[in-house]
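Encode chain A's predicted structure.
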Amino acid sequence: MSASNIVLTVVLMALAYLLGSVPFSYLVARANGVDLQQVGSGNVGGANVWRSCGFGPFIVAATCDILKGMLPTLAALHLAGLPPGAVMLVGVAAILGHTFSLFLKFKGGKAVATSTGVLLAVFPLLIPFGVIAWLVAFLITRMSSVGSLMAPLVELLLGSALYIAGQLPLAYAIFIWGIGAFIVYLHRSNIQRLLAGTENRFSKIF
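Encoded structure for chain A:
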């Protein structure tokens, strides 16, 4: 990679991190009179917006969280014309901004929506399978955490199959493997509650 591309990658990573740090879920909830850090799970992610504010605010928050992953990745891919590895570094920076927000004392959400945005930018064909997996798992269990764990698992399996078949660049495959493991790690407290049978369920969907 050329020196100019390295500089451009670093600049875009910094901008992606700043955009990723904007806590849209937190802001949407505050606009509805709710402090996400004080209600529900205390997490500043979309699921807590849904549980605490309703489905409409959740859609707004989730859309914004998806866009902050998708837009900088698209800029790196199409406007800057960076190679796949650099594009994924920009996407990862947006995800890290979301998870370790500069504006929330380096706390944040659990990376599901923002990771979806990054994947939408580089390989959108996987997204419908992840969405279906999330919906099926959620509707069966009424637990958003189960859906959030099932979706990356399905995308990881399909992404691996596509990589083996030569249909997915290595950089994208590494991103899918890495982000899948990262999402599981971020949901470790949810997994503990699932094993203990104490995980929160949605009493109503809409």
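The mean pLDDT is 94.
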